[in-house]
Amino acid sequence: MAKTDEPDLRGWTEEGRRNAIDVADMLGVPPEIYTHDPMSLIPALQEYVSRAPLNEFEQSDWVTLHSDLMSYVADCLVQKHGARWTVAEDPAAPRGYRFVIEAAGRDGQIRRIDPIDVVMKEFSSLPIDITRMLATAELALQSASPDGES
């Protein structure tokens, strides 16, 4: 991988964290409350997605919603479960890698999930349920098959 194509893990992590805090603030959860307890955002975020006119969304609306939910899921996993962002090689991805969340599962094995996959799975089971989405992410991170390289 060429130097110019190196993943900016720190930038990605900081941007995702900032986005989650901004979403909380936009929905009326003060940043100091959200950063102390990310679960405090669940009621406001659930109300937001429940009221969103999904059938009227344009492409940019979908991208924003996916990004916001991915940021939130990842931030919850980082804050509540000690997970961390890392880079996984992915030849199918445009840049040859993607950012994933990893943490030790219940058996001590390192597990990896892509938060966007969790969000996409939630969109296949409408209506969107924030608690179910978080539970899916937590379960996957705690009990998914270990990454072959980890």
List keywords for this structure.
150 residues; globular; alpha+beta; 3 strands
Distance between the termini: 20 Å
Instruction: Note the total helix count.
Output: 6
Global mean pLDDT: 91
Structural class: alpha+beta
The major β-sheet equals:
3 strands, antiparallel
Query: Low-confidence stretches at least 5 residues in length (pLDDT < 50)?
Result: 144-150
Number of strands: 3
If you compute it from the alpha carbons, what radius of gyration comes out, rounded to the nearest whole angstrom?
Answer: 16 Å
Percent of residues in β-strands: 5-15%
Global morphology? globular
- The side-by-side strand order for the widest beta sheet comes to 1-2-3
* Elements, N to C (H/E): HHHHEEEHH
Helix content: 40-55%
Question: What's the quick description here?
Answer:
By secondary structure, the protein is an alpha+beta fold. The chain is built from six helices and three strands; from the N terminus they run H-H-H-H-E-E-E-H-H. The longest helix is centred in the middle third of the chain and has 23 residues, at 59-81.
Describe the protein in words.
This protein has helices at 9-26, 31-36, 42-51, 59-81, 115-123, 130-143, and strands at 84-89, 97-104, 110-113. By secondary structure, the chain is an alpha+beta fold. A 3-stranded antiparallel β-sheet has the order 1-2-3. A hairpin with a 5-residue loop joins strand 2 (97-104) and strand 3 (110-113). The two termini are 20 Å apart.
Q: Topology of this protein?
A:
Blueprint: H1 9-26, H2 31-36, H3 42-51, H4 59-81, E1 84-89, E2 97-104, E3 110-113, H5 115-123, H6 130-143
Antiparallel strand pairs: 1-2, 2-3
Helix pairs in contact: 1-4, 4-5, 4-6, 5-6
